[in-house]
Amino acid sequence: MSEKIVKIADDFWNIRGEFKIGGLLNIGTQASLLRCASGKYVLLDAYTLNASLKAEVDALTNNGADIEAIINVHPFHTMHVAQMHEQYLCPLQQLYRG
């Protein structure tokens, strides 16, 4: 699985990434970006974005200024939470954990 962003619908993108077990077996991982009716964005789950993916997310979200929240819906993404929040500090700096 290669790292990429896939547009699923007008207001929904899936960020597909790599997750290797034992450094060998790539089972993949994902996060999602959704545009709300307000025009602001929410990231569902965290993923450490490489420079190319970050540039794509930045282009969509006004360099991250329009990201209102990062919602981590399950514990499998915890290894990416700190990096995602470092890249995109939400306006209220909210950290939600499901």
UniProtKB/TrEMBL annotation:
SUPFAM superfamilies: Metallo-hydrolase/oxidoreductase
Domain of life: Bacteria
Protein name: MBL fold metallo-hydrolase
